[in-house]
Amino acid sequence: MVDTKTTGTDMVTEMDKASEALILGRLANERPDDAVLGEEGTDRPGSTGVRWIVDPIDGTTNYLYGHAGFAISIAAEINGEIAIGVVHDPLHGEVFTAIRGHGAFRNGLAIHASAETKLSHALVATGFSYEPDRRQRQAAVLGKIIGSVRDIRRMGAASVDLCSVACGRVDAYYERGLQPWDHAAGALIATEAGALVGNLTGGAPEFEFCLAAPAALFNGLRSLLVDADAANA
């Protein structure tokens, strides 16, 4: 069974709901006093200073159509700072993990962001809104930057994009309009793998913008995106 959320193209399946219920059930048993924020509507307060941020299926459209590029994303926030991130890509049998200050790993092996230094050689991932008018603006941004990079990839799940930056499958990633559950775990994993992750004005990733890239590419790509007015797309 498939429902919609923000628009007719923003889908949620029974599996999204079942996955979140399973994760929340485990958290309720193991960490009953912690806060929880989940994509499918859960916003439970807590008393411990720990908040779990859960996306039960990031990339629901990919999941629904049988494409690769969906994942389960869970982050632990302690006193307002993301401290632990886990992203599980079941089709590829990959589990990406990070603990702040202790590096990033894929299936237990250390991973590192790309060593690419030339923006013209960079493979860049991005995503698009489900709102038709915003998609048009984002396509216009893409048209302004695509000639300055090697190529663009649109995989359909922010957590997968960020983990792809973390392990060097893409050189960089940007997107506007993410929610906390979209980027919480993946941003930490990318950061711990050596990438810079932030917005276009020097702050942390947020709804307005998330950009992830190695230090050698970050400022150049940010300048391209600012010039393309990506923050308003």
UniProtKB/TrEMBL annotation:
GO BP terms, alphabetized: inositol metabolic process; phosphatidylinositol phosphate biosynthetic process; signal transduction
Descriptive protein name: inositol-phosphate phosphatase
PANTHER family per record: INOSITOL MONOPHOSPHATASE, INOSITOL-1-MONOPHOSPHATASE-RELATED
Broad EC category: hydrolase
Catalysed reactions listed for this entry: a myo-inositol phosphate + H2O = myo-inositol + phosphate
Required cofactor names: Mg(2+)
Family from the record: Belongs to the inositol monophosphatase superfamily.
EC number: 3.1.3.25
